[in-house]
Write a structure and sequence with these properties.
It is a single chain. This protein is α+β, with helices and mostly antiparallel strands. The chain folds into three domains: about 1-35 and about 200-420 and about 575-745, Multidrug efflux transporter AcrB transmembrane domain (Multidrug efflux transporter AcrB transmembrane fold, Up-down Bundle); about 40-190, no CATH class; about 445-535 and about 535-565, Alpha-Beta Plaits (2-Layer Sandwich). It is built from 25 helices and eleven strands. It has helices at about 1-10, 10-30, 40-45, 75-90, 120-135, 170-175, 195-225, 230-255, 260-290, 295-320, 330-360, 375-380, 385-390, 395-410, 430-440, 460-475, 490-495, 515, 540-560, 570-605, 605-610, 615-630, 635-665, 670-695, 705-735; strands at about 60-70, 95, 105, 110-115, 150-155, 185-190, 445-450, 485, 520, 525-535, 565. The strands form three sheets. Strands 7, 8, 9, 10 and 11 form a five-stranded antiparallel beta sheet that branches. A four-stranded antiparallel beta sheet has the order 2-5-1-6, with helices on both faces. Helix 7 (about 195-225) packs antiparallel against helix 8 (about 230-255), helix 10 (about 295-320) packs antiparallel against helix 23 and helix 22 (about 615-630) runs antiparallel to helix 25. Residues about 35-55 and about 740-745 have low confidence and may be disordered.
């Protein structure tokens, strides 16, 4: 570091040229536009869907949710038919389905729709009510059991969609405007995968701009309050902001900015991390300049004394981020990779720009006001705290160890979960409609039970129906979590017949393929049962899924040759829950071990490396316990947050240990070195804590639960890290460092 400091100061022009070169590359990266990619297979297949008479109810792109006072009257039916016709005329609507499109099934063909003509008599509407609410196919699928909530599933022709608003505001406006009803007898809302995603995406990008602006403004305001000079604030801010600019350009060139957590969190995170190192550098520069050192000498000595700590904090932080590459989730991997790159680039920017800028005309008066800040004065008044740590090291150390273990035990009760609600902004209309569907229709997410039978069994065998009915009995045992199963049993129930269901299997051949195929495929010898689930948290359903899979294993022995499996996106999310815990353990465990090895090697002492365990784990234990107390689950964002928290916690420890080691090499005793490190580094630690908490706390006002959780975890870790490094770390150094001690303490 001494050679690097001399090189940076003596070869300032070449260093500035290197900074300009990196800035040019980043600028080119920001201007770089990746080549357009061909439309994804999913969107293309969605666009090629064609409408038709079908009972297939796959996961639609969107759902029009209609609440009615009385469906079975001419006024309401006319309004709904007008709405459906207007929506279908939109260019980007591929299909629309509702109860008026469902034909009555019989053995002689297709009869009139379930709803009578507009000019039908009141008696026919009364009969229609009974027929609709007893229909075995559509109740729970397209209409609630009380007949007051209807669903109109729609799919989009993505080639005709010109704007996101087509799938939300315009669709909803057309649906509402064409009912011709001015009162509240018909209320229309919109939900489904696409509206939910668009509301989340809009809130995400809106919050990104807002909270970055607020965070940066707060950092500048607090820095002005602390340093009292604009030139000092500009120098301290230049390094982190340039590091963010370099990172943004390079990541754009790497096409790595599609990760939403990266685009929102990374700029604020790198700014906070860069400000931490920058403040430590500036505090030393100001102190040396105030003591009479020349600008060049102050800049060089600050790099020598703080550069090692800055380098080590960036390396350990990058290790923590890189450990996310061990995760199974590509979202987490991308975030970790981007953050690791950003941490290194921000270090380069901070350790070069701030010292070099301080020797320019802009940095002539950076030392003015040093020693008169509230933090400096406050630290001088709390020397009693240091003395109490020095005189009671064993008691305070044991307190730190026991408290960390107790909080870790609380953390062990954390459980992973995933809810749609957590990804939606507060007051989301799309989620309000989804919650209504949860109450009235059992939810909008679908889980499929797929049953396959062997070649030796004819496709119209009654044994197939027996197996299917047994599966449905297992599903019925899981009510109310699993509701409204839909299968060929419902199709047969809708056909008037007096024979048992096992004997009605040949009647399936009379049904059109468009109706039968989704639920009964004779060519592949496969039947499907579709079940609805609510947004109660996938953790509750994961237990149900496991229980059903065990039941299916037993069922396979009862029906030799049959195979039973669970499919669908909720099932995959349930299976991925355990990966969240595995990813967290792998990432934190790997990062902790590597960081321990690095710190042991750098400080050339296994004892010092072990001493750092409690101060670094205590903030994580506090944060995990906070999640438990707040009732927040583990999720993908939590895995990323814990690794970020580890990096933040280690940074303060490194700065304190580096100063402590410097004081010991100067010949000071252990108590004297602790006192000096507390006063010299404590100022920077408190300043960085104030700025970091101010920056992250702005996100606590976000309308997205995941962002609020991330910010709360960061703030909790930062505050707990300050306690760990200014209370527990000095006490443990005093207790376990067997170096020279003051005579009064011997």
């Amino acid at each position: 570091m001494n050679h690097l400091a001399s090189l940076l100061i003596q070869r300032r022009r070449f260093v500035w040229l290197g900074i300009l070169g990196l800035t040019g590359l980043a600028f080119y990266g920001l201007l770089y536009h990746p080549p357009p990619q061909a439309p994804g297979g999913q969107q293309e297949s969605e666009a090629l869907r064609t409408s038709g008479e079908s009972f297939d109810l796959p996961q639609p792109d969107a759902l029009l949710v209609i609440e009615v006072e009385n469906l079975f009257e001419p006024k309401t039916v006319i309004a709904l038919r007008s709405m459906a016709a207007a929506v279908e005329q939109l260019d980007y609507i591929a299909t629309l389905n509702w109860i008026d499109r469902i034909p009555v099934l019989n053995t002689f063909g297709l009869a009139d729709p379930l709803l009578p003509p507009n000019d039908a008599s009141p008696e026919r509407f009364t009969l229609a009510r009974q027929k609709v609410l007893q229909h075995p196919v559509i109740v729970g699928q397209l209409i609630s059991a009380d007949g007051r909530t209807l669903l109109m599933p729609v799919t989009f022709d993505w080639l005709a969609v010109t704007d996101d608003a087509d799938c939300t505001e315009q669709l909803l406006r057309v649906a509402r405007d064409t009912t011709g009803v001015s009162d509240e007898s018909i209320r229309v809302s919109l939900t489904g995968p696409v509206p939910l995603f668009l509301e989340h995406d809009d809130a995400f990008h809106r919050n990104r701009r807002k909270f970055q602006l607020i965070a940066y403004s707060l950092v500048i305001a607090i820095s002005l309050f602390l340093f009292r000079k604009l030139s000092t604030v500009l120098i301290v801010s230049a390094g982190p902001l340039l590091g963010v600019f370099w990172t943004w350009g390079i990541l754009n060139w790497m096409q790595a900015l599609s990760n939403p957590l990266t685009t929102v969190v990374l700029p604020v995170l790198l700014t906070m991390i860069g400000m931490t190192d920058g403040l430590h550098l500036m505090v030393h520069i100001r102190r040396l300049r105030n003591e009479g050192a020349t600008p060049l000498r102050a800049a060089q000595l600050s790099i020598q004394r703080v550069g090692t700590a800055c380098l080590l904090t960036s390396v350990t932080t990058a290790i923590g981020f890189a450990s996310l590459l061990l995760a199974h989730n590509e979202f987490v991997q991308g975030f970790g990779r981007s953050c690791a790159i950003g941490a290194i680039l921000t270090l380069v920017a901070v350790i070069t720009v701030i010292p070099l800028a301080s020797v320019t005309r802009l940095g002539r008066f950076v030392h003015h006001g040093h020693g008169h800040r509230l933090v400096d004065q406050g630290l001088q008044k709390v020397t009693w705290l240091v003395d109490s740590l020095i005189h009671r090291p064993r008691q305070i150390s044991l307190l730190g160890i026991l408290l960390t273990l107790a909080l870790a035990a609380i953390c062990s009760t954390l459980r992973p979960d995933d809810r749609t609600r957590d990804a939606q902004p507060t007051g989301s209309p799309a989620y309000a409609a989804l919650a209504h569907c949860d109450r009235e229709l059992g939810g909008i997410e679908l889980v499929h039970v797929v049953m396959r039978w062997p070649d030796s069994i004819p496709h119209d065998s009654g044994q197939i129906m027996q197996a299917l009915l047994t599966v449905e009995s297992l599903i019925d045992r899981e009510k109310p979590l699993l509701q409204f199963p839909l299968s060929i049993r419902n199709l047969l129930d809708s056909i008037p017949a007096n024979a048992p269901l096992e004997q009605q299997m040949p009647l399936l051949s009379l049904l059109p393929d468009s109706i039968l195929q989704p639920y009964y495929d004779t060519s592949s010898r496969k039947a499907r049962i579709t079940v609805r689930i609510s947004d109660l948290g996938i953790a509750r359903y994961e237990i149900v899924f496991r229980r059903l899979e065990k039941d299916f294993e037993k069922l396979a022995t009862e029906f030799p040759g049959f195979q039973f499996s669970l499919e669908g996106e909720p099932v995959e999310r349930g299976r991925a829950l355990q990966e969240i815990v595995t990813d967290l353990a792998a990432s934190l465990g790997t990062a902790s071990v590597i960081i321990l090895i690095v710190m042991t090697a750098v400080y050339r002492s296994l004892r010092v490396g072990l001493i750092t365990i409690v101060p670094n784990l205590f903030p994580l234990a506090v944060t995990g316990s906070m999640l438990v107390l707040m009732g927040w689950p583990l999720n993908v964002a939590s895995v990323c947050s814990f690794v970020v928290c580890l990096g933040i916690a280690v940074d303060d420890t490194i700065h304190f240990l580096t100063r402590y080691g410097y004081e010991r090499t100067e010949g000071k005793s252990t108590p004297a070195a602790i006192r000096s490190a507390f006063v010299h580094v404590g100022t920077a630690l408190i300043l960085t804590t104030l700025i970091l908490v101010a920056g992250f706390s702005t996100v606590l006002t976000s309308d997205l639960a995941l962002q609020r959780s991330f910010a709360a975890m960061a703030c909790s870790t930062i505050l707990a890290a300050l306690i760990g490094d200014l209370v527990f770390l000095p006490a443990m150094l005093m207790w376990w460092d067997r170096g020279q001690r003051d005579p009064v303490d011997s």
